[in-house]
Sequence to fold (152 residues):
Amino acid sequence: MITAQALAACLMLASNTYQVPPAVMIGIMQVEGGHIGQQAGPNFNGTYDLGPMQVNTLWVPQLATIWHVSRSTAQTWVRDDGCVNVHVAAWILKQKIAEAGSLYAGIAHYHSATPDEGRRYATRVVAAMDKRGLIKHDEVPHSSHYYQFAQR
Fold:
């Protein structure tokens, strides 16, 4: 079994490899709520979601081809190996960002190409990131009006 520290190291390496923000990967992982060895589903279309990042089994045939392994082996790796799972998720997110044209839209498309579902998902990911202090908020400028208000 992989430790939380090892999974975090894998997530950072995956983020660096695919040039996606690690904070977004953490937000996705929090929203997805999956864990190593998990196969959730079936979804409405008969697919399943695998591992910590809940990678959809729709990706398994392509991964099997890329990795030159059987579909069963690819699915097992994505489901049961946390490092493989976060790397695949970062690879998917990178593609979705490129296709959608922005980070926010890429996050939405990671979950769904349906606009309303994707937006709701991206909003949840951003909220998860914010809750964990992963989003930098601009400081309120120090003005006399703000200072007077704050003193009341």
Remarks:
- The chain has one domain: 20-134.
